[in-house]
TrEMBL record:
GO cellular component terms listed in the entry, alphabetical order: cytosol
GO BP of this protein: dTDP-rhamnose biosynthetic process
Protein name (Swiss-Prot/TrEMBL): RmlD-like substrate binding domain-containing protein
Family annotation (SUPFAM superfamilies): NAD(P)-binding Rossmann-fold domains
Domain RmlD-like substrate binding residues, every copy: 1-286
GO molecular function annotation: dTDP-4-dehydrorhamnose reductase activity
């Protein structure tokens, strides 16, 4: 089995590359700016159609894991053309190459494809994005579903773990950095998420990649607001919780709307017996491998 990770130097992508390597899978990956010190990396700009289609059709991977996206919700709202170029046209170009090579597509999606008006969301719900980021990911899902190729769509939410210096930060690391510097941290009480510990997510991709098709929610087991999550992070890492101050999101005056979406991961447990870490377990696991 040959697996291609598109976006192999991002947070999730790089963890996938290393995990698949450890499992002795024939793994290849693409990068744009940064490069992992691992064999099998190839430069690729997925916004360029011709080289993308040729690269994939020549490589002929059995499975393509598409992790590349602009995930900054506010940037996507401000610069919609850029968001469309990367998040929409990018996956279209990858699908065109995959159609020639008859590769299975594993598409990493997001809770932002929903508006949060329902109490919870299972996999078969109709998408209803509030933000332009959510719109681009919903379009990506639709292109994958109608491609005629075997596919997996894995929706996740607020992934967190240790990162490399060039990678985008996450909510947990922001808490650790701010409190570690003895600074006050303002955290939002009206944004709720199902935070996902990245090593759990990576394990699921490996377990499902050649065994499942369709849509799965691959998220943590707790639905929690950002303020409570920050408090729990401080407790697990032994930092000062009193430095964390609750605020409402309207105080931030941000361009993009956020939706409070509770993705449920029951399908993952029922079909494959896979359980996902809650916030406490994920943070404890992260703390046990504390990065210096």
């Amino acid at each position: 089995m040959r697996v291609l990770i598109v976006g192999g130097t991002g947070v999730i992508g790089s963890k996938l590359v290393r995990y698949f390597k450890e499992k002795n899978i024939d793994i290849k990956f693409t990068y744009l700016k940064n490069h992992l010190p691992i064999d099998g990396g190839y430069y690729l700009d997925i916004t360029e159609k011709t080289p993308t289609v040729k690269f994939i059709s020549d490589m002929k991977p059995d499975i393509i894991v598409h992790t590349t996206a602009i995930t900054n919700v506010d940037l996507c709202e401000i610069n919609r053309d850029l968001a469309d170029l990367v998040n929409v046209n990018g996956i279209k170009n990858v699908i065109e190459g995959a159609t020639i090579s008859r590769s299975k597509i594993i598409y990493i999606s997001t809770s932002a494809v929903f508006d949060g008006r329902k109490k919870e969301y299972e996999e078969n719900e109709c998408v209803s994005p509030l933000s332009h980021y959510g719109v681009t990911k919903a379009k990506g899902e639709e292109y994958v579903k109608t491609s005629g190729l075997p596919y997996l769509i894995l929706r996740t939410d607020q992934p967190y773990c240790w990162i490399e210096k060039w990678q985008h930060t996450n909510s947990v690391l922001r808490v650790l950095e701010t409190l570690g510097s003895q600074k006050t941290l303002n955290e939002v009480v009206d944004w709720h998420n199902t935070p996902t510990y990245v090593p759990d997510f990576v394990r699921v991709v490996f377990e499902l990649c050649d065994k499942a098709d369709g849509i799965f929610h691959v998220v943590g087991s707790d639905f929690i607001n950002r303020y409570e999550w920050a408090l729990e992070t401080a407790r697990i890492f032994g930092l000062n919780q009193e430095l964390i101050k609750p605020i409402n999101s309207d105080e931030l005056n941000l361009p993009a709307k956020r939706s409070n979406v509770k993705l449920v991961n029951h399908k993952l447990l029922q079909k494959f017996g896979i359980s996902m870490s809650g916030v406490e377990e994920g943070l404890k696991n992260m703390n046990s491998i504390r990065k210096t």
